[in-house]
Amino acid sequence: MGIHGSGEHSYGRLPLPRWGLLELGGKSANVILDDADLALAIRLGVGNAFANGGQVCGGWPRMLVPASRHDEIVELAVAAAAEYTVGDPTDEATHIGPMASEAQRHRVDGYIQKGIADGATLAFGGPGKPDGLHTGAYARPTIFTDVAPDAVIAQEEIFGPVLTIIPYVDEDQAVEIANSTVYGLTGAVFGSEDRVLAIARRLRTGQVDINGAQWNPLAPFGGYKQSGNGREFGRYGIEEFLETKSIQR
């Protein structure tokens, strides 16, 4: 019997049968190069980080940006975040609904407070509930800058609408930062075609989107490191539960 498990990375420590396909947590990086279409990269990057209230294992909660364009990108990201409305998920005007539970909201709030205590700069949002939302498990969409690559909020999976913007000086450092977590589920690269492919190949992650590529449900999906093992979707997901036989004559 095989089991397909999905959850945060500690789930992978549970005893499993011989056949086990695990799709676990992530702390993926969105690498924006200095020649990227910033309007596209920021719009998709912020949208991905805040999708489903940040409760997406394959989201991009880390935005790695060239130091030379850091301030410009922060300004664009804050402007993009300001367009997101938090509220009743049944209201068509709402972009971000509540966290899965009040316990998760407290957890997200704790990470935001940890980021502030550790010296990161709060560029947007912050702890507490959004204005006017006194009941319900709502968290404020938050953006941090001046985040050290090894900071808690840059390393651990928050699973909430919290985006960390981290500068890099060159492509080698960008790759090093992107690969510096225990996770390796997804990622993204924005920039000129010849450069993004080279960067994507160096990322230790199971899936990389280039310049906002559409998700392909037939492509293999799964993680490296503590983001899981095996692949799901398409024929790859089926083959994970098959045994291979060789007949010779």
Number of strands: 10
**Can you identify the CATH class?**
Alpha Beta
Sketch the topology as an H/E string, one letter per element: EEEHEHHEEHEHEHEEH
Order of the strands making up the biggest sheet = 5-6-7-4-3-8-9
Largest sheet, described in full? 7 strands, mixed
CATH fold label: Aldehyde Dehydrogenase, Chain A, domain 2
Range of strand content = 15-25%
Low-confidence stretches: none
Helix content: 25-40%
Shape: globular
Active site: 23
Protein name: Aldehyde dehydrogenase (NAD+)
Family: Belongs to the aldehyde dehydrogenase family.
GO molecular function: oxidoreductase activity, acting on the aldehyde or oxo group of donors, NAD or NADP as acceptor
Structure description:
With 249 residues, the chain is an alpha/beta fold. It has a single domain, classed as Aldehyde Dehydrogenase, Chain A, domain 2, CATH 3.40.309.10. It has a 7-stranded mixed β-sheet with strand order 5-6-7-4-3-8-9, with helices on both faces. It has a 3-stranded mixed β-sheet with strand order 1-2-10, with no helix packed on it. Helix 4 links the parallel strand 6 and strand 7. Helix 1 crosses helix 2. It is globular.
